[in-house]
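Table S7 (text form). Paired inputs.
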Amino acid sequence: MSGDAPPVIEPVGESKRPRWSVMIPTFNCAHQVSETLASVLDQAPQADEMEIVIVDDASGDDIEGVAARFGDRVRLHRQPLNLGVPANLTEALRLSRGHIVHLLHGDDLVLPGFYRAMEQAFADPEIGAAYCRQIFIDQQGTRTGLSPLEQSEAGRLPDAMRFLASEQRIMTPSICVRRAAYERLGGFHPALRCAEDWEMWVRIARDYPIAYIPEPLAAYRMQQASNTGRNMRSARDVFFNGLAIDLIRSHLPPDIADRTAAAARRTYAGSALVTARDFARKGDIGGALTQWRAAVQLDSSAPTLLSAARSLTRIGYGALRRIFAA
């Protein structure tokens, strides 16, 4: 796994390039892409300053019809075969021509002022990436939560590599990255079918300062059809979190690598136990037990094992209630 190198992102061989590339990966979400595009176009500069490209991963819906409604302002690239999320993200990077790249999934949104705030952050010529606080929304667009406030003032994030390595804190729509950073570090790691973005942000933080914007200016849509959601019942999400932690550990200095990786394993084992309880409440005992097993495989520390024992009691109680109710 760790022997696989990230895919290469070649430099752009053009002298006249846009400042921004807004690359919109899509897969069977044509019904939501218009809203995503509108959130960008409401604040976008001229076409020579910002290219907007839909990168569709061989969807079965009418993404062509959606793109056509926006005329020449939006370009569509369709993959001939389905690549999967990480590879499609990497292809989006390769297709980008701008100096700053924003990967914005076709079901997510940006709020007014997003690109203006990002421009201010990238006025610091040394930063490799900037991200803002993010809002969580459901499938209908209703606000369901808000990410924690990392710091009250906009600016560089102190000790960003260690901070970001401990837990996934950045949802993809909220972050913009210099294309030069991707050219230096490569695309999304091919071994990761989930958590590919987390590993990427830590990789960038290893080599570049990261800027933070405290205003919530991006919205991430939580839904079961998302890449993470599709992998939850099989606990593949937990498996790939473990792979990502191993890769992230290899990016860290030896004096903090083991401690940070162990803390991350406890965090995501705890998250898996919460997911197991959620499955049990819904009567999905198979999904609950799969997440429970993945949790104890990810982390066998005493605190996790104690929590797992308590969680198993709740899952068992839920199973008995389901049996007697049938």
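Next pair, protein 2 of 2.
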Amino acid sequence: MHLGATIRLLRVDAGLSLRDLAHRIGVSSAYLSRVEHGHDAVPTTDRLEAIAQALGVPPNLLVGASHKVGHALEGYVEEVPSAGMLFLEIARRRLGSAEIARLRSFVEREFPPAELRDAPPSLARLLSADRVILRLSCPGIEDALEIASSRLPRPHEGASARQVAEEILRRERAASTAVGSGVMVPHAFFPWAEPSAALVTLAKPIPAAAHDGEPVRLLVVLLGTGHDRAHLALLAHVARLSSHGLAEQLASVKSPAEALALVATIEESG
């Protein structure tokens, strides 16, 4: 996943100009532009946390998406050596994803950090089997979006799937939602919309303006009520999932039920 594309996506949806965000985190607009376009190194963990704070999203989403978890973990173990022993015990016992998910659930329940006291973002909660479309054959993004929109709940009476798709395309033309690793996150807002999502895997990849140059293999289509913190956190969360190989893993599923289970498993395993 290209982290810069995710930062740009969140910035645009937060209504911030390049200069606004650069000023908030204390860097130049030129530097931030280079980061967004992948021409500069991935920001340090401290700077990623500052960007997340300015955008109002949990810092762990950006830090995790940047593949800097190892660096952050090293710093934490140096600060709290006993934590290293716990990690070693987990490795010695060779705990699997199910056991790790149970541990994670316990930690989140007993020790919720301030930025996660609200329910953490979840793609699985917004999906249903009828909103999962596998190996769709279509000539372009427009057709895929219209089909996906036909599966989403109507934002209000009288709204058609075409109107929903047109609004998503309008947002897409403002700034590409391709976050890299074969994933695009097209979305739209309607005041009375039920927050929901649709997944579309493509039989044949479609070219897109992704900074890593990868064509789109997976569409995560989102419908929401507005540009709020929860929406930005969800976008960052989906981008993080893309960096963990979401498109590649979903490409081999054989049914919508299997796709839903896979998304839930990936989210539970962190």
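The chain has 13 helices and six strands.
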